[in-house]
Design a protein that fits this description.
Blueprint (H helix, E strand, L loop, with lengths): L5 H10 L2 H7 L5 E2 L5 E3 L11 E4 L4 E4 L5 E2 L1 H9 L3 H10 L29 H17 L2 H9 L7 H4 L3 E3 L3 H4 L6 H13 L13 E7 L5 E8 L9 E3 L10 H6 L2 E5 L2 H9 L5 E3 L8 H9 L4 E5 L4 H15 L4 E4 L8 H7 L3 H10 L2 E4 L13 H6 L11
Parallel strand pairs: 10-11, 10-12, 12-13
Antiparallel strand pairs: 1-2, 2-3, 3-4, 4-5, 6-7, 7-8, 8-9, 13-14
């Protein structure tokens, strides 16, 4: 489960006006010795005011029944929700909590707005999930910190590719499964692979990267865990066959495509200033749909930037032959042994320069050699003669 950062919890406890929340429950508060406030407790039949609120510390304590705690405890006890659900309500703001109803022992009515619609078609429903994850990431410190650690804290990358974060809060916003709408929504989301039979989100704890089809519909969602894996897979996709082509604009705008093995590596190139990049779904995840996109948009050259390991080299050589058979010239981008694009970009900075060096020195694999060679490739004769040697490429 994605952990809520301690500093965010402290911020909510400090910045949320507890006295205002108490008053929103219909409690009339008056001064009580110094800076404290006192009113009738909502947790028991209180004939004499016994609920003390201390604004300076944002804490409450009932002298009668013993109920006490922070703003989070107040929301948990008055709304009848879990700790995480209470945090989400506080994140949402006071409007989601304003009510004068009696405290609930356990609520089945969700006060958080549901981000998906029961009557939406499957493609639209999946798109709504992706949009919710996207908005979640923009307000999540842990998710944004992961992008920072991976050198992907670019001002436009989150919105450009609808990056998101699955942090287990989607389920808090669905109607309860005991209700008809909640049960049906869960059934449909399970069929799409968004939630598992256990009820947990499939990509929980992951940065999410949607992959779209030609019509702009979500065909696939990739998940990359943002914290320690704890024995769990670090890379996930939705169940079922891969659909969609990442960054189709690259095919529309350039005849030369950088093809990565993983979506995080593709984002690395994009952030470094190489927008003509796409990604396979792993070493063996180059799909017919990707090939059709290359043929449809007239791709002439593909620079295969798979990980520099045995499986990456083997897959690159195989794919180079497949693309050459379609009249596409292929080159192998050679990272140092054991490295991928993101690791290399983080080690040799600035990435805009270090990656450019590797692209310029990419080794010819297969396919026709055009008469008009771009400036960022080796000379024709050298490309014909050179083989992949396994030597570490020069760095700036």
């Amino acid at each position: 489960m994605a952990r809520i950062p301690t500093d965010e919890l402290e911020r909510l406890k400090k910045e949320t006006d507890l006295a205002a929340l108490v008053r929103s429950r219909g409690v009339e508060l008056r001064k009580h010795g110094g800076s404290d406030l006192i009113g009738r407790c909502v947790f028991h039949d209180d004939h004499e005011p016994s609920l003390v609120v201390t604004p300076d510390k944002n804490l409450f304590h009932c002298l009668g029944c013993g109920a006490a705690g922070s703003v989070i405890d107040w929301v948990m006890q008055t709304e009848g929700v879990s700790f995480r659900h209470a945090v989400e309500l506080l994140r949402e703001g006071a409007s989601s909590l304003a009510a004068s109803d009696p405290p609930r022992k356990r609520t089945t009515v969700r006060r958080l707005p549901c981000p998906v619609e029961l009557d939406a078609a499957n493609a639209e429903l999946l798109g709504q999930v992706v949009s919710y994850y996207h908005e979640t990431l923009k307000g999540d410190a842990a998710g944004l910190a992961f992008l920072e650690r991976r050198g992907l804290a670019h001002p436009g990358v989150v919105d450009r590719f609808s990056l998101g974060l699955a942090n287990r809060t989607l389920g808090l916003r669905l109607p309860e499964k005991s209700r008809k709408a909640g049960a049906e929504l869960r059934r449909r989301l399970q069929a799409l692979g968004v939630i598992r039979s256990s009820g947990h989100e499939h990509l929980n704890g992951c940065l999410t990267i949607p992959v779209l089809d030609e019509a702009g519909r979500v065909g696939e969602v990739y998940g990359r865990r943002v914290s320690d894996h704890d024995g769990r897979p670090g890379h996930l996709y939705l169940p079922g066959p891969h659909r969609g082509v990442f960054n189709l604009d690259a095919f529309r705008e350039s005849k030369e495509i950088i093809l990565c093995e993983a979506l995080l590596d593709a984002l690395t190139f994009w952030v470094a200033g190489f927008p003509n990049v796409t990604s396979s779904f792993g070493t063996n995840g180059f799909t017919d749909e990707m090939l059709e996109a290359m043929k449809a948009y007239g791709t002439e050259r593909v620079l295969i930037a798979f990980d520099r390991d045995e499986s990456g080299d083997r897959a690159a050589a195989k794919l180079g032959g497949r693309l050459a058979a379609e009249g596409i010239t292929t080159f192998r981008v050679l990272f140092p042994r054991g490295m991928d694009a993101n690791a290399y970009a983080m080690k040799v900075m600035p990435a805009s320069q270090s990656l450019a060096v590797l692209l310029r020195s990419a080794e010819y694999l297969a396919g026709p050699l055009p008469t008009n060679r771009p400036a960022n490739h080796p000379p024709e004769k050298a490309a014909k003669e050179r083989k992949i040697t396994g030597e570490r490429p020069s760095t700036p």
